[in-house]
Write a structure and sequence with these properties.
- This protein is mainly beta and 147 residues long.
- It has one helix spanning 3-21, and strands spanning 33-38, 45-54, 57-65, 89-97, 100-108, 113-122, 127-134, 137-145.
- The protein has an eight-stranded antiparallel beta barrel with strand order 1-2-3-4-5-6-7-8.
- The longest helix is centred in the N-terminal third of the chain and has 19 residues, at 3-21.
- The protein is globular and about 35 Å long.
């Protein structure tokens, strides 16, 4: 077996391992799919958010609650006030600008506040760095892809 042949076999094996590590329909270079979120104060798993795309714009909707905490957005204002968290969009309006998803809004149901949002894939597409910013303040959180 030649070195070139071995290199191709190793490359193919790595490609297959990467493909098998991602859930069906997900791509390592796309934020589409389901993501486990974590409480920013305690680090405990909080929700599963499904990120979908419509006409080039991303939306992230809560599809599962992972703790025994709040089930409604009691701190939200307007139409979201006291609405169920399950099915609630918490990310919206993000568009791809030069490989980064930004220009959208993120909602933190725990306090009902919104901020400007941006997303960046890390660790080969298995993690999503989610950043909310308002003025000069910003806060990032890492979400994990769910299979």
């Amino acid at each position: 077996m030649t070195i070139r042949h071995r290199t191709r076999i190793i490359g193919l094996a790595l490609l297959m391992a990467t493909a098998l590590a991602l859930p069906a329909g997900a791509s390592a270079d796309s934020p589409l799919g389901k993501w486990r979120t974590f409480d920013p104060d305690t680090g405990a798993p909080k929700t599963v958010v499904e990120v979908t795309e419509t006409d080039g714009t991303l939306t992230g909707t809560i599809v599962e609650l992972l703790d025994d905490g709040e089930t409604t957005c009691s701190q939200c204002e307007g139409d979201r006030k006291n609405q169920p968290l399950l099915g609630m969009p918490v990310l919206w309006g993000l568009t791809n600008k030069g490989g980064e998803w930004s220009g959208g809004t993120i909602l933190r149901p725990a306090n009902g506040k919104t901020a400007n949002a941006s997303l960046e894939l890390t660790d080969g597409g298995t993690k999503l760095e989610v950043t909310g910013s308002k003025g000069i303040m910003s806060r990032s959180q890492t979400w994990e892809r769910v299979e």
